[in-house]
Amino acid sequence: MHSDASNFQLNSHLSTLASIHKIYHTLHRLNLTEDVSPETTACCSRAMPPRKKRRPTAVDDLSAKKSRQDNVYRKQETLQIQEAEAFSSKRCLEWFYEYAGCDDVVGPEGMEKFCEDIGVEPENVVMLVLAWKLDAQSMGYFTLQEWLKGMGSLQCDSTEKLRNSLDYLRSVLIDATSFKLIYRYAFDFAREKDQRSLDLNTAKCMLGLLLGKTWPLFPVFNQFLEQSKYKVINKDQWCNVLEFSRTINLDLSNYDEDGAWPVLLDEFVEWYKDREMS
To answer: Are 146 and 136 in contact (CB under 8 A)?
Structure first.
């Protein structure tokens, strides 16, 4: 009995060892299939050669060449636009002599053509603003120095550029401070240089140009001037007319006869009230 038990234990032990050995070989086999050896890698590398770089076709070459040419053309166009937009003293000088001819001043004939080219009547108030910008000293004339300095400040060296600046010149009149400067400038600009006063006809034209559309009493004031004894307007009277137009009510109710107004305006107020009462 003892022998049979021993044999049973031995067989059981051998069976267990066999099972363990079988499991070991199975796991080992699995490990061998999972691992990738250098030989396997080399084999795969030989089986899958690296992708070759595609050579550019004729179509690709033409496309690349066209792209380069387009870039060059765009750069050239940009430079041309920048050059056209930039102010050129040389171009401004050539523009001046289109109207001055062989002289160093644009006279009445050249001024007429100049106004025609920019599309503005000589009597238009924008021409007065332009003259102010050029600091022109005589009505109907632009000197070379005035032209270059003034057009340079406006950055205009061609007819087209000045046309594009006309709206800006008109807008200057909206600013009260700038308008006052232009109004004062107009007196010296329009008067004869050997005279300290402005003749009445010229004064009426300039007042109509500057105040005709903004001062409701201007038509009445103009009538007063026509029937008055005055032949000229001095600078003090000129400047006070602007102040009067800005501060005195249309019915003249706030006019102070004892104020520091010139006699010209005292007489206008008296004339106006008599006219309204009759």
So the answer is: yes
HSE at residue 251, side-chain half, CA atoms within 13 A, is 2
Q: What is the pLDDT along the chain (278 residues), one digit of tens a residue?
A: 445 555 555 455 555 655 665 555 555 555 544 444 444 444 444 545 566 666 667 666 667 666 776 666 565 655 445 555 799 999 999 999 999 999 999 999 999 999 999 999 999 999 999 999 999 999 999 999 999 999 999 999 999 999 999 999 999 999 999 999 999 999 999 999 899 999 999 999 999 999 999 999 999 999 999 999 999 999 999 999 999 999 999 999 999 988 899 999 999 999 999 988 87
Largest CA distance in the chain: 166
Contacts of residue 158, Cβ cutoff 8 Å, sequence gap at least 6: 91, 95
Please check whether residue 240 is in contact with residue 265, taking contact to mean a CB–CB distance below 8 angstroms: yes
Query: What is the reported pTM?
Result: 0.70
Query: Please, which residues bridge with residue 106 across strands?
Result: 142
